[in-house]
């Protein structure tokens, strides 16, 4: 069904530096193929742990 609805076009994209997001549940807005904010959002839960290397 995806190829019928979208006809192989880019649905949305996003690029985030995860180290700059605060811990917790966040809504990240997605952009369309020309760089304009779309109606799409991505719900993520950010958890950070510190490790010594």
Structural features:
elongated, 53 residues, single chain, mainly beta, C2_domain_sf, 2 strands
In a few lines, what is going on in this structure?
With about 55 residues, the chain is mainly beta. The protein has one helix at about 1-5, and strands at about 25-30, 35-45. About 10% of the residues lie in helices and about 35% in strands.
Describe the structure.
The protein is elongated, with a radius of gyration of 15 Å. The N and C termini lie far apart (46 Å). It is mainly beta and 53 residues long. 9% of the residues lie in helices and 34% in strands. The mean pLDDT is 76. It has one helix and two strands. The chain has one domain.
Radius of gyration: 15 Å
List low-confidence stretches: none
Tally of individual helices: 1
Please trace the helix and strand order, writing H or E for each element.
HEE
- Domain unit count: 1
What about the largest sheet?
2 strands, antiparallel
Average residue pLDDT: 76
Give the CA-based shape: elongated
What's the N-to-C terminus distance?
46 Å
Strand content: 25-35%
What's the count of strands? 2
Structural class: mainly beta
What percent of residues adopt helix (DSSP H or I)?
under 10%
Which strand order do you get reading across the main beta sheet?
Answer: 1-2
InterPro entries: C2_domain_sf
Secondary structure elements and their pairing?
Blueprint: H1 2-6, E1 24-31, E2 37-46
Antiparallel strand pairs: 1-2
């Amino acid at each position: 069904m995806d190829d019928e609805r979208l006809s192989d076009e880019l649905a949305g994209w996003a690029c985030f530096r995860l180290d700059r997001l605060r811990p917790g549940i966040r809504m990240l807005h997605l952009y369309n193929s020309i760089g304009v904010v779309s109606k799409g959002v991505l719900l993520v839960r950010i958890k950070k742990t510190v490790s010594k290397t």
